[in-house]
Write a structure and sequence with these properties.
By secondary structure, the chain is mostly beta strands. It has strands at 2-11, 17-22, 27-30, 35-42, 49-53, 56-68, 72-77, 85-87, 95-96, 101-110, 116-121, 125-129, 133-134, 152-163, 168-169, 175-179, 183-188, 193-198, 202-206. The protein has one domain.
Length: 207
């Protein structure tokens, strides 16, 4: 494995918050003002799909799901996307060799019971998410089994980004997430990360 890139997460709220990293699920509680660094560890050559876009080699398939909830923030790095999030406090920087750029799809969803907003920088584009809509369980006749889980609806947004394949120090974050009282601020480091497309807010079905 090699350390590919780093995301910096900051608790800008006035109270402690949870940071949950999936799919393995380590859960950290970080205090107001505390900063945690999260790394993507990519397996060299394992299942990579590389294509050429405008003369540049791009590794496709990265997926990062960012979920706001009432306790804090969840980050999902799906294994089939070669993302494996690991918390490491105060790591020493290592040089990431140059290679194909990574095409990364970020999805941001609001699992809170109140409205939230996301600010994407640079550009300060602000997106408003409505509260999660929890549906009442359906009526069941006597003797019928009540479903164990009920669907709910939450607002979601998809962002397409590209992370540079240039040689760099892995201790420099390509993105920073500030969790605050209103929601989330996402800062892209323009030296290494560019936004290629921002979708529209849509209703996502969850549990």
């Amino acid at each position: 494995m090699r350390r590919s890139f780093m995301i910096r997460v900051r608790n800008a709220r006035a109270q402690p918050a949870h940071l949950v990293l999936e799919p393995r699920g380590p859960d950290r509680i970080f205090e107001p003002g505390e900063v945690l660094d999260v790394f993507d560890l990519a397996v060299d050559g394992a299942g990579e799909a590389v294509k050429v876009v405008n003369g540049e080699a791009v590794r496709s398939g990265g997926l990062l799901e960012i979920e706001l909830d009432d306790l804090g923030l969840k980050l999902y790095g799906w294994m089939d996307a070669l993302l494996d999030f690991v918390y490491e406090p105060g790591p020493a920087g290592v040089v990431v060799p140059s290679g194909p750029a990574l095409s990364c799809s970020l999805t941001v969803t609001n699992d809170r019971l109140q409205a939230a907003r996301m600010v994407l920088e640079p550009g300060a584009r602000e997106v408003r998410f409505e509260p999660k809509e929890v549906r009442a369980p359906p009526e069941v006749a006597p003797g019928q089994v009540q479903p164990r889980r009920q669907n709910n609806l939450r607002d979601g947004l998809e962002i397409e980004a590209r992370i540079s394949g240039a040689q760099r120090d892995s201790s420099i974050p390509v993105m920073e997430f500030d969790l605050d009282e209103q929601g989330l601020v996402i800062r892209m480091n323009e030296s290494f990360c560019t936004v290629e497309h921002i979708g529209e807010v849509e209703k996502w079905r969850g549990y």
